[in-house]
Amino acid sequence: MSPRWRSNGNTESVDNYLKAIFYLGGLEECRVSIKALAERLCVAPASVTNMLQKLAASPAPLVEYERHRGVQLSAAGKRRALEVVRHHRLIETFLYRVLDYPIEEVHEEAERLEHFISERFEERIAAKLGHPTIDPHGHSIPTMEGKMATRESILLADVVEDGTFVIESVSDRDAQNLRLLEACGIVPGARMQVSKSASLEGYSVRIGRSSKVFALSCEVALDIRIVRPTK
Questions:
Q1: What domains are defined for the chain?
Q2: CA–CA separation, 17 and 224 (whole Å)
Q3: pLDDT digits (tens, 9 = 90+) for 188-231
C-alpha cells in the first residue's frame, strides 16, 4: 500500500488544487495551464500562481511548477489527489446507495466531506458497499493503492453516426442536468440508441427498448460518455 497522506495546514484548499490538476491533466498527466486551473477553481490567476509556488517549494513538493509551462502533480501530489478522489466517490456511492440521497445532491455533499474522513472510516464505507469500482455517476473509484481503471469511452457530443451505445458515465458538474437525465433513464449502464438530429443542434435518443424519444442538446451531450456495447 502506498504511503497515506497526513494532513497539516490548509488541507481543504490544497486538496482542491491537487484534485483540479488531476482532473484537468487527465490520466496522461498533461501539464495544466494557470488559466485553466483558475477557471476550474473560480479564483484569480495570481492566487493560483501563489499557491502553486508554495506547493512546489514545500519540503515534500506536491506539484512540479514552471512559469509559462504550467503545472503537473508530483508523485506525492498524485497520491493525495487519488486519495481525495477515492474519498469523494466512495462517499457519493454511500450517500446514494445507503442513505438514498437524490443523485443531484451527492456531489456537493461529498465535496464537503471528502477532506476529513479517516482511513478507518474510508475502509468501513468501502467494505459496507462491497468495495465498489464505480460511483453513481459511472466514474472509476481509485483503489487504496492509488490505482484507477481506465476505460475506452467517447463523449456523446463526438458521435457523428447513428448507433447503439451503453452509457459509461454522466458528469456531476450540473445538478439540474443530473436530475433530468436520471428522470429520463439516462444513467450509467443503460443502453441508448442515438440519432444525430438534423432538425436541431443535438441528438435524439431512446433508452433501452422504450419508444420514447428524448432530445439532447450538444451542451448536455458533453456531459455523457458512452461505449459500444460488448454484446
A1: 1-150 (1.10.10.10), 154-227 (2.30.30.90)
A2: 25
A3: 999 999 998 766 688 999 999 999 999 999 999 999 999 999 87
